[in-house]
C-alpha cells in the first residue's frame, strides 16, 4: 500500500489510515547537499565522517564526497577516484555504487554496475575491496551478477540484517534494457524488472551463500516501465523491513522514490499507496527524485534530483531523515 502524500514544511508528518504503517519524514535539507552532478548516491559513516559515492561523472569512475555532519558541508574530493582501475569484464560507464564495511574483518566492499564487455547495451554487477574507506578499491576479477539474457543487473546494495546477522545483497534485473520502446525501454511492458535479494558470504562479500529471491516487481499501472535502485532498511522499533526503490524512467518527471514493507526480509513486501518523493515536492524544488539509499536503521536517506526540470545532465544530491512510527499492519 502506498503512503498518502502531503505538503512539505520544515518538519512534517505523513500519516496513513489505521490499517497501514504511518511514516513521518523530517527533511534535513531544503536545498541540495551537493549542488553539482552526484547521481545515485550512497553513503557510509566512518568514525566522525560521512562518505558519499556516486555514479561516474565522466572523469572519475566513482567520485567521493565527505561531510562531518551528514546534513551540511559536503565536499567532493578533487581528483579522486574510488575505482581508478576497472576489471576486464567492463568497458566502463559505472553506475550506482554502494558500500559496506564487513564487521568480521573491517574490509570495505564497494558494489557497482558496469557496462558488460560481452554485451555493451547491458550492465553487470561487480565488487571491489579496500582496507580504507576512500580506496583505491581493487576490483574482483569476475562480475558477481550478469544475467544478460534477462537484461543484465544493476543497482546492487548490501544490507546486514540485524535480526539474523545475515549479509544480503539486493539488485535489479535490468529487463528494460532489452528494448520495448520509450525513453528507458519497456514502454510496451514486455519485460520484467524484478528486485532480487540473496545472502552473501559475510567474510568476503563477493560470493553468494544461497539462491536469489525476487522480492518485488513493477506494477505497470503505478511504476511505468520499471522499478530500480533497491535499498533495504530495518526499523527495530517497528520490527519492519522497508524496501526503498525508484519507479518510472529516470529521465522523466515521473521518476520517484517509493517503498514497500514486510515483516520478513524475504517478503512478501506490500507497496505503499503513493510514492514517498515525487517531482514538485519541497515547494517545487524536487525534480525527478530517485536513486535513493537509506541507512540500515531507516533513519537517514540520500537521493538525487535534477537541477532543471526535464534535464538529467545535473542530478544533485539531497539528504534527509526518515522515521517510521506507530501502528501495525492488519490484513
Summarize the model shown.
This protein is mainly beta. The chain has helices at 220-223, 281-284, and strands at 12-14, 23-26, 42-46, 49-53, 64-67, 75-76, 90-101, 108-116, 119-130, 138-139, 153-160, 167-173, 195-199, 213-216, 227-235, 240-247, 256-262, 270-271, 290-294, 300-308, 311-324.
Structural account:
The strands form five sheets. Strands 1-2-21-20-19 form a five-stranded antiparallel beta sheet, with no helix packed on it. Strand 16 (240-247) and strand 17 form a beta hairpin. It contains two helices and 21 strands. The protein has 331 residues and is mainly β. 2% of the residues lie in helices and 41% in strands.
Describe the structure using short key phrases.
mainly beta; five-stranded antiparallel β-sheet; 331 residues; 41% strand; disordered N terminus; four-stranded antiparallel β-sheet; disordered C terminus
What is the topology?
Layout: E1 12-14, E2 23-26, E3 42-46, E4 49-53, E5 64-67, E6 75-76, E7 90-101, E8 108-116, E9 119-130, E10 138-139, E11 153-160, E12 167-173, E13 195-199, E14 213-216, H1 220-223, E15 227-235, E16 240-247, E17 256-262, E18 270-271, H2 281-284, E19 290-294, E20 300-308, E21 311-324
Antiparallel strand pairs: 1-2, 2-21, 3-4, 4-5, 5-6, 7-8, 8-9, 9-10, 11-12, 12-13, 13-14, 15-16, 16-17, 17-18, 19-20, 20-21
Percentage of residues in DSSP E strands: 35-45%
Sheet with most strands: strand arrangement: 1-2-21-20-19
| Structural class based on helices, strands and sheet pairing | mainly beta
On the 0 to 100 scale, the average pLDDT is 89
Q: Name the overall outline.
A: globular
User: For the report, how would you describe the main beta sheet?
Assistant: 5 strands, antiparallel
Rounded to an integer in angstroms, the radius of gyration calculated over CA atoms is 18 Å
Total count of strands: 21
Regions with pLDDT < 50 over 5+ consecutive residues?
1-26, 327-331
Figure out the total of helices: 2
Ends distance: 11 Å
What is the H/E string? EEEEEEEEEEEEEEHEEEEHEEE
Helical content band: under 10%
Amino acid at each position: 500500500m502506498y503512503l498518502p502524500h502531503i505538503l512539505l514544511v520544515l518538519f512534517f508528518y505523513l500519516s496513513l489510515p489505521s490499517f497501514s504503517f504511518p511514516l513521518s519524514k523530517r527533511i534535513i535539507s531544503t536545498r541540495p547537499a551537493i549542488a553539482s552532478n552526484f547521481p545515485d548516491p550512497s553513503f557510509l559513516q566512518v568514525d566522525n565522517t560521512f562518505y558519499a559515492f556516486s555514479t561516474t561523472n565522466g572523469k572519475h569512475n566513482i567520485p567521493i564526497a565527505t561531510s562531518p555532519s551528514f546534513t551540511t558541508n559536503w565536499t567532493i574530493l578533487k581528483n579522486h577516484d574510488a575505482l581508478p582501475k576497472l576489471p576486464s569484464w567492463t568497458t566502463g560507464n559505472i553506475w550506482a555504487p554502494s558500500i559496506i564495511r564487513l564487521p568480521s574483518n573491517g574490509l570495505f566492499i564497494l558494489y557497482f554496475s558496469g557496462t558488460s564487455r560481452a554485451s555493451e547495451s547491458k550492465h553487470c554487477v561487480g565488487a571491489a575491496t579496500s582496507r580504507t574507506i576512500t580506496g583505491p578499491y581493487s576490483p574482483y576479477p569476475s562480475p558477481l551478477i550478469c544475467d544478460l539474457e534477462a537484461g543484465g543487473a544493476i543497482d546492487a546494495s548490501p544490507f546486514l540484517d540485524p535480526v539474523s546477522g545475515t549479509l544480503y545483497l539486493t539488485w535489479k534485473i535490468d529487463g528494460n534494457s532489452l528494448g520495448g520502446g520509450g525513453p528507458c525501454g519497456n514502454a510496451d511492458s514486455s519485460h520484467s524488472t524484478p528486485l532480487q535479494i540473496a545472502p552473501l558470504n559475510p567474510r568476503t562479500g563477493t560470493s553468494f551463500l544461497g539462491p536469489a529471491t525476487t522480492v518485488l516487481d513493477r506494477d505497470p499501472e503505478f511504476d511505468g516501465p520499471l522499478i530500480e535502485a533497491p535499498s533495504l532498511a530495518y526499523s527495530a522499533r517497528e520490527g519492519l523491513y522497508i524496501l526503498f526503490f525508484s519507479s518510472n524512467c529516470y529521465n522523466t518527471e515521473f521518476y520517484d522514490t517509493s517503498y514497500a514493507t514486510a515483516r520478513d526480509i524475504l517478503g512478501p513486501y506490500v507497496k505503499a499507496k503513493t510514492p514517498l518523493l515525487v517531482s514538485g515536492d519541497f515547494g517545487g524544488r524536487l525534480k525527478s527524485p530517485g536513486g535513493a539509499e537509506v541507512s540500515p536503521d531507516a533513519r537517514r536517506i540520500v537521493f538525487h534530483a535534477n537541477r532543471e526540470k526535464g534535464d538529467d545532465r545535473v542530478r544533485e544530491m539531497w539528504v534527509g531523515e526518515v522515521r517510521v512510527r506507530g501502528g501495525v499492519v492488519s490484513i
